[in-house]
Task: structure prediction
Amino acid sequence: MRRHVAGNVSWVGYIDWELERFHGDDYSIMNGSSQNAYLVEEEKTVLIDTVWTPHRFDFVENLKQEIDLSKIDFIVANHGECDHSGSLTALMEEIPDTPIYCTENAVKSIEGQYGKRGWNFRTVKTGDSIEIGNGKKLIFVEMRMLHWPDSMATFLTGDDILFSNDAFGQHYSVEELFNDKADQCVLEKEALKYFVNIINPFAPVLKKKLVELAGLNLPIKIIAPSHGAIWRDNPGQIVEKYTAWADAYQEDQVTIAYDTMWEGTAKIAHKIAEEIARQSPNTVVKVFNISKSDKNEVMTDVFKSKALVVGSPTVGNSYLSSVAGWLEFLKQLKFKNKKAAAFGCYGWSGESVKLLQGKLAEAGFEVIDENVRSLWNPDEEDFAQIPALVSSLLGIDPNAEAADEQPAAETGKMSKWQCGPCGYIYDPAVGDPDSGIAPGTAFEDLPDDWSCPICGVSKDMFNKLD
Ligand code: FEO
Result:
């Protein structure tokens, strides 16, 4: 059933309340999801994307209820992954000659998956457009590596809708379609989880793409992604979030993730959590048993953290297999600007801590030397190592009593400043580590030659936020 989006644009996708896993089993779905496809009916009729392969026959039948398929003048395939292209095989049986607009790489991915079927591909690049009548056109914007080499977005003039495909999406079922109708807490949580687990590995590309998008001066009124809620209420909010998240994001949080055999490593994990709370009461601490926790949810907390502490006992001259797989995923996500430490029990050879430190460094973390390596069960001597580990991780004096006052940056006393041209927000609590600006540096104390890390304009183009 079609649902009205704006003007002559309808949603014709699939809301998947029953979905539990995505990308095989690699992504957990907690609140359903959707595959959004759109029908644009101007003088020309255009279908933008389709839905996942298992739903292809329903998709085509539903579309037939809404429109004579022969009236579709063009198809736009923003991305070749099967959750968006998977209904093409069934659809093209009905309308085999209909032109499919997509990137050159999308032809490779679509033909790679479904075979060379002689479909009428028309390849496009950024800035290419097609007239669709009534004074409107579709403008194409390549979104290479966001998140596949074939990805692109399509902008509809007149209604000013950016069909962004995977970018700005969420795995979240919103029956009412729009962000203003969604549960705002779930929406933000799912948008962040999606960003962390799917988009973050490409954050450097995203930073440049956001600048390029701003430079195109598209008057975007609605962002219509291919998963989850459509951003019609203040679509700039998700662009601002992506801008912040792509910039080595962190909050005052530490995540402790471990697995344990006989509870010794678990005891160390909880002692570390207690010590963080003692030394830095305002710091949020999250503790997860890796083998009992959803990895996508844990990674979302790691992303929010300024530091990660990973523990495993030694087993087979290494660490537990649950931790091994988890560390591999951690590396894939390419987090930046975070410290890390390791801990674990052992009975005989005791390699786990050193190996964990190596893996954390490989994953891009700044690994501290301080660790807890406990023979058999942890005792007071082992726990005595924890204050130094925590103080090194947090960069504070281990002997200091819990501070009555936090630094100004942590308490928000220093103002944030926003870049006028691109919307990047300078947060003094975070600083600009990529440019050598340490956390805790007030905007006023930035060097005169400092410039916006996103679009490169100078300090005087920034505006103070309340
Ligand atoms: Fe939603 Fe990359 O597919």
